[in-house]
Design a protein that fits this description.
19% of the residues lie in helices and 31% in strands. The chain is an alpha+beta fold. The chain has a 6-stranded mixed β-sheet with strand order 7-4-6-5-9-8. It has a 6-stranded mixed β-sheet with strand order 16-13-17-21-20-18, sandwiched between helices. β8 and β9 form a beta hairpin. The two termini are 32 Å apart. Bound molecules: adenosine monophosphate and magnesium ion.
Length: 402
């Protein structure tokens, strides 16, 4: 057996083996976090007309520049109404934000700079009147047919607004992965169920689901299996038929009841790697089934399970929805850290503001990978290259958020 892959190599193996899911058309309301499989161009100029940006009155600015301060109010231009026309340069039209600038007007004076009484508007001497003041002119932001959202764009809030503005009720995106979290372990007991002194609460599925939900992955089923090779084989075969991602926790180490790797091979999942040169989470397992489903065997210890989900499953999910890899987020260490073992370290950190370094990652080591209580208050973890090494305060490490 060769040397174990580094975390970066393991992530690359995950990305290489996961293909983007098929493209489907989905309604706008279900697209947050999805990745466009087809580019979107502008339906119209944006703004589509000279758009009033302040409540006030629209005038012909030359009249003001010639000295006129009092204007007869000849009508009201509301948003959503077809454009009115200013018949005389000595008159004005009341206008509302979002309305089209009426024909014959070239600027807007905001309500704060005028008084309206008895059908006339008196404009303050200090009003800043000039052509196109308080008007968002047609086509300033983009032109009809401009490329707005290229293929591969991940849809966050601004992108969704632009998509809607392009007039499309649906968009072509890669399918949302169907995920199942499968915990294993005879010692685990569901919250709400009576528990014996020697048993453990089943907490991983909740944490893993939370980390997925916070990233917009919501199609998540859940199962729990005993440490029984036959049951594992039977249930895994079923889950592989109905999910794109199977995320297991537990049963991948060297213990006598760690049946997961063998059960996965038995149901035809090809092992891509087992073990990564990292701590915690060294027993991490990854493989691909005959149908192309991705299978992750996360170590059961809660800290290991969570870091491995963030470090390997999340990049795999992003590959499956066709997203570009998220860029690394370098973060300076807020305190020095000495690392002995020749393994990469996933070190939990809390983000803090330092007077000299700005935002820093303060190391919050746990008492081993079973100590998830110590993760409380942490924001994520940094990845430190293998020791032995003394990492000084200010050392830039890749930060991963929980
Ligand atoms: P394993 O990887 O199955 O050897 O499990 C390692 C440790 O993690 C054991 O102490 C397990 O009890 C614990 N563990 C495994 N799965 C879970 C889970 N779903 N929730 C909480 N602890 C777990
Ligand atoms: Mg176990």
């Amino acid at each position: 057996m060769g040397p174990l892959p580094t975390p970066a190599e393991a992530e690359a193996l995950v990305r290489e083996r996961i293909k983007a899911l098929p493209v489907e058309s989905r309604p706008l309301a279900s697209l947050a976090g999805a990745v466009l499989a087809k580019a979107v161009r502008a339906e119209r100029d944006q703004p589509p007309f000279d758009r009033v940006t302040m409540d006030g009155v629209a005038i012909w600015s030359a009249s003001w520049l010639e000295g006129r301060r009092r204007f007869v109010v000849a009508g009201t231009q509301a948003a959503g109404r077809p454009p009115l026309s200013l018949e005389s340069p000595d008159a004005c039209l009341e206008v509302m934000t979002g309305a089209v600038l009426p024909a014959g007007c070239d600027c807007v004076v905001p309500v704060e700079k005028l008084r309206i009484a008895d059908g006339t508007a008196d404009i303050d001497e200090n009003a800043a009147v000039e052509p196109f003041a308080n008007v968002h002119t047609r086509g300033l932001d983009c032109r009809e047919g401009d490329m707005l959202l290229p293929h591969g764009t991940r849809l966050g809030a601004p992108e969704l607004a632009v998509l809607a503005s392009a007039g499309l009720p649906r968009a072509s995106v890669h399918a949302d992965p169907r995920i199942i979290i499968v915990t294993t372990g005879d010692e685990l007991v569901e919250p709400g169920e009576p528990i014996e002194g020697w048993q453990i609460r089943r907490s991983n599925s909740c944490a893993l689901r939370g980390a997925l939900a916070l990233r917009g992955f919501l199609r998540v089923a859940d199962d729990h299996l005993p440490d029984d090779p036959q049951v594992l084989r039977d249930r895994l075969a079923v889950h592989l038929d109905t999910h794109d991602f199977v995320v297991l926790s537990g049963g991948v180490s060297m213990g006598r009841f760690d049946y997961v790797p063998q059960a996965l091979r038995d149901v035809g999942v090809e092992e891509v790697f087992h073990k990564v040169a990292q701590r915690p989470g060294k027993p991490m397992w990854f493989g691909v089934s005959r149908g192309g489903q991705a299978v992750f065997g996360l170590p059961g210890n809660p800290v290991s399970a969570l870091v491995c989900l963030v470090r390997y499953v999340v990049p795999g999910l992003l590959a499956a929805i066709g997203a570009h890899p998220a860029p690394a987020e370098p973060m300076p260490l807020g305190a020095p850290y000495r690392l002995q073992p020749p393994l990469s370290l996933f070190l939990p950190v809390q983000l803090e503001r330092s007077p000299t370094l700005g935002l820093v990652a303060m190391p919050k080591p746990t008492r081993g990978s079973g100590d998830f209580i110590s993760l409380l208050g942490t924001d994520g973890f940094v990845e430190l290259p293998p020791g032995p090494a003394d990492y000084p305060s200010g050392y830039l490490a890749d930060f991963h958020r929980w």
